[in-house]
Amino acid sequence: MTNAAPNTDYKGELVKLDAVEQALAGLREQYGTVPNVQTKEGYALCKKGIKELTTYRTSTEKLRKEITKPHRDFIERVNGYGKDLVEKLQAIEQPLKDAKQHEDERAEREKQQRIAKLRERINVEIWSFLDTAEGLDSTGLAELHDAAVNIDTDGYFDVTSEAEDAKAEVLKRISEQHGQTLEKERLAAEQAEVEAERRRLREEGERREAERKELEELRRFKAEQEAKRNPPPTPAPQPSPEPEPLPAAASYSKATAPTLAPKPETITISRGEYEQLLADQAKLRALEAMGVDNWSGYDSAMQQLAA
To answer: Could you count the other beta carbons within 10 Å of the beta carbon of residue 81?
Structure first.
């Protein structure tokens, strides 16, 4: 088999095709417009044109094949020869490619394992800050934010950008949580102040109510003591008048009826109130026995009682 290209005079063979091209202008002028085939002359011209153009077309196709045959044979030889060489080259190349692919796959597996470990470090060393932030107060969150700022991302190699993104996201979330916690603590402090004021007012009211009741009790006690020290004078007994003879029944009237002494004024209370008065009296007597008149505030209470 020779690999030399065929020695062909292309210029001379193209001359044969040039002749067809030269005839093409006349054929286009003669048959370029389709005649009216419904007329006898037009039909004949159409038939003649088909025959002549078919002759030119088939002869041109035959000429093309004759001219290109040596080249097609050469191309076929080149294709076969080249294919054989490619197969032999592939036989040498393929083992090298297989070895390289095996090594690349091994290196990629190691890289992915290394990246997986680095990502696990990101979870443990960076993302875990978010777990720590749960439940912290504003002070703890501020300290945690300062610690997150100092996270070193230089040792993450293949995933350094992921570590930097994780750090930025952690700082953002902790900062947002810190602001929310500050607001909650502020509201809680305000609520605590409101509750403390309510409790103070309630205790103040209870204290005043207790003082009022104690004052009333002291007033009752004072009244009882005053009554004991200054009992109302007992009226002297009046001598009984000499009995007069009873008038006749016809002359008896209210004017002649004897005058009776007035009964003491009384009020009606329930047994419960009566028992409470007795209990209060006993309590006040006990206070007096223990020197309540020497206690702080006693004089002020008496002044209010007398007011």
So the answer is: 12
Which residue reads 């060489």 in tokens? 85
Helix (H) or strand (E) holding 242: none
Tens digits of per-residue pLDDT, 261-282? Answer: 666 777 888 888 888 888 888 8
> pLDDT digit string (tens) for 201-251?
999 889 888 888 888 888 888 888 778 777 666 666 666 666 565 554 444
The full length of the chain comes to 307
Packing angle of the helix pair 160-229, 271-289 (nearest 10 deg): 90
Quick one: which of 149, 150, 157, 145 has its CA closest to 121? 157
Nearest to 176 by CA among 138, 149, 150: 138
pTM of the model: 0.44
Question: Which DSSP state fits 286?
Answer: H
Q: Is the distance from CB of 107 to CB of 147 less than 8 angstroms?
A: no
What's phi and psi for 246, nearest 5 deg?
Answer: -65, 130
* Listed residue (79, 71, 74) closest to 13, CA to CA: 71
Looking at residue 238, what is its pLDDT? 66
- The residue written with tokens 């402090």 in the block is 189
Domain ranges of the chain: 10-112, 117-196
